């Protein structure tokens, strides 16, 4: 691992600038680093994600009404068991690996290409934002079915015995289209989320890590800030996505909605009719608390593996070439 430089120090000769490594990194390196980062991002903070899903319920069971994240976790563990907040983690891990592998690999390649066009290879906030949008389309195409299953298993009194039972039941009763019912809403949420996310991260890196060395502290702080800002801004869309994914029967029945709720516009109308503007911000505390450390973990792990794997590859190539 390279040494961490101070603000006024120049990179040591032969040590290599960290951000000069990615252009030499293979697609496999980006995908491997992205997959590891994605799995860790979703698993470490998963219990808080479970709480967020429940707190976004439009008409929760009286036994599942919580005033804070801490209270929710304490009550879930006390009344439903220690492992209940982890329900649905298996499908999340299965989806997060390939989804984030595509996500980071696409982001790096598109960012590099657009930066060459827009800024002659320099850092461009427009390129960062657009690259994040393109990467999101691929990520959500893989992750959306996993999100549907995950959120159904996270809900209070979920009727599904296990992962396979949930998948089979959804397929038999609602059809395969149910796994992508919220895809348009997911994209409508995640495209601005990721645009703000990547632009904030790169902006923070310019301030905290101008030499672009491998610097874990700056990656953690930049990731946390990016996660908090983008999560808060897109909470209304996340509430609508949760409603489309869970098809909350009690809430829909009370609004005299029969069948399955589809479409972002219908979800927006339903949420507003149920609780006004305040309903769009249900679970915002849990969402921000989840996203800040999750995004910090994702970026710090991704940057470490990108650095480590690229360094190993370059050292291997130098060893193969032998002394000049």
TrEMBL record:
Solcar repeats lie at residues 25-113, 123-207, 214-308. Keywords: Ion transport, Iron, Iron transport, Membrane, Mitochondrion, Mitochondrion inner membrane, Repeat, Transmembrane, Transmembrane helix, Transport. Pfam families: Mito_carr. Coiled coil: none annotated. Residues 1-23 are annotated as: Disordered. One of its GO terms (molecular function) is ferrous iron transmembrane transporter activity. It is found in: Mitochondrion inner membrane. InterPro entries: MCP, MCP_dom_sf, MCP_transmembrane. It catalyses: Fe(2+)(in) = Fe(2+)(out). One of its GO terms (biological process) is iron import into the mitochondrion. One of its GO terms (cellular component) is mitochondrial inner membrane. It is a multi-pass membrane protein. Belongs to the mitochondrial carrier (TC 2.A.29) family. Mitochondrial iron transporter that specifically mediates iron uptake in developing erythroid cells, thereby playing an essential role in heme biosynthesis. PANTHER family: MITOFERRIN-1, MITOFERRIN-1-RELATED. This is Mitoferrin-1.
């Amino acid at each position: 691992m390279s040494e961490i430089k101070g603000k006024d120090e120049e990179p040591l000769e032969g040590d290599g600038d960290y951000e000069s490594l990615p252009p030499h990194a293979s697609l496999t390196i980006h995908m491997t680093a992205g997959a590891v980062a994605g799995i860790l991002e979703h698993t470490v903070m998963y219990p808080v994600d479970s709480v967020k899903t429940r707190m976004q319920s439009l008409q929760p069971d009286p036994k599942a009404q919580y005033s804070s994240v801490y209270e929710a976790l304490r009550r879930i563990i006390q009344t439903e068991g220690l492992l209940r907040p982890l329900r649905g983690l298996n499908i999340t891990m299965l989806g997060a690996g390939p989804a984030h592998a595509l996500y980071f690999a696409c982001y790096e390649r598109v960012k590099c290409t657009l930066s060459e066009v827009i800024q002659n290879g320099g850092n461009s906030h427009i390129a960062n934002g657009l690259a994040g949008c393109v990467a999101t389309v691929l990520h959500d195409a893989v992750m959306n079915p996993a999100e549907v299953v995950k959120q159904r298993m996270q809900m209070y009194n979920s009727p599904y015995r296990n992962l396979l039972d949930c998948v089979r039941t959804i397929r038999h009763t609602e059809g395969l289209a149910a796994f992508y019912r919220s895809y348009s809403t997911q994209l409508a949420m995640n495209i601005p989320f990721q645009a703000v996310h990547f632009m904030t991260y790169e902006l923070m890196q310019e301030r905290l890590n101008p030499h672009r060395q491998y610097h874990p502290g700056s990656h953690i702080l930049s990731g946390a800030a990016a996660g908090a800002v983008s999560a808060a801004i897109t909470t209304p869309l996340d509430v609508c996505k949760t409603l489309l994914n869970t098809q909350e029967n009690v809430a829909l029945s009370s609004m005299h909605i029969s069948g399955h709720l589809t479409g972002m516009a219908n979800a927006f109308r339903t949420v507003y009719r149920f609780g006004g503007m305040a309903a769009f911000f249900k679970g915002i505390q849990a969402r921000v608390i989840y996203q800040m450390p999750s995004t910090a973990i994702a970026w710090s792990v991704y940057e470490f593996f990108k650095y480590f794997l690229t360094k190993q590859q370059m050292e291997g190539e130098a060893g193969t070439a032998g002394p000049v």
